[in-house]
Write a structure and sequence with these properties.
about 425 residues, alpha/beta
Amino acid sequence: MTITVIGHGYVGLVSASVFAELGNKVWVIGHTPEKLERLRNGDPIIYEPKLADVLKKNNEAGRLIFTDKYDQAIKESSIVFIAVGTPPAADGSADLSVVYEVAKKIGENLGDQFTVVAGKSTVPVGTNLEVERIMKQANPEANVAVASCPEFLREGSALQDTRVPDRVVIGSNSKEAIDQLLELHKDLPGKRVTTNLASSEMIKYASNSILATKISFANLISFYCEKTGADVEEVLEAVGMDKRIGRTFMYAGIGYGGSCFPKDVQALADTGKKIDINTGLLDTVESINQHARANFLDHILEKVSGKNIAILGLAFKPDTDDIRFAPSVYLIEQLLEKGYNIKAYDPAAMDNIKGKFGDKITLTQTALETVKDADALLILTEWGEFVNIDLSKVKSLLKTPLLFDGRNIFDPKKMKDMGFTYVGVGRA
């Protein structure tokens, strides 16, 4: 097929690359000439393992075409995916302005052929019907049907999640649109879930919100453990052995971040309030997430006597450079405000954190350079490099062997035996 993907962030670029890999001709529409030129030259802009290789391969094969022009791409395509950002507005609702702006441009450029316009952006129920209305207002004669085809990729494993999905969800009120999307996805594994438009839109929010809930539940239990002498890892390991529950995503730490969970929990709560649903559970999930990082900060302020702090890990999770809603950003802001000096290192997120803080913090080239002469070390992201770090060397470089483990990657007994003052999350 010939298809178009509008947006080249994590969702848009990975989806476009995988569809191109399957043999389709894929137009990718962006609006920044400099970024489009970098993409044409094989630079994926975002950090995602192996994505550069797939991008280069499909660029060279002529299956990926990057443009800022809508006319040729839309008229040629049988399917158009909207994969632009829906960031949170000040009140927690999803900002849909770019989605609607794109819908108008699509409508203005639709040709005579039947076209499916499918939303990959995470949007509240009813958004794709509004997309349809906007397109038909721009082009009353358009032969178009809207669909929702949400993604379930995880940053850091986005290619694998897109190539080998657990399920492919396709929602539309048009059978023809569903059939066309099923055809596009025919070479991908995973269960097929076909449903109406509203259910598909809701599935994405429900999925992200239950995962966020598991993280916040784990952190709630960690608060109990800290107050009672229980060990959160022992508790959750035993709880997760119950097949009805499982351990996936049920880990205590300094809270979730990234581009999905924070905004999607808030947006689902906002939708609920607008239709008179009690959103107390979702509100509490978000509240616990905020408390997890604040609680971690309290321990730092209580135990660190000097003013020099080393931080390893800035991205919200390993194998990505994404710092959106990352706990590191909150902690750095708070520590700077309280007069601490910060040295920091991350294998991928250095440019993004520099764009956020500039010269307010010192960025280093290696983990060991970061910890030298620090009064305390904070580990905020569980990169493999940090999991396997030489702890004896770390201890020798620190001014004070005080380590705050925000992801519980080390064993408290081993750390104590090595001479560290170790502070995990909910650890005995």
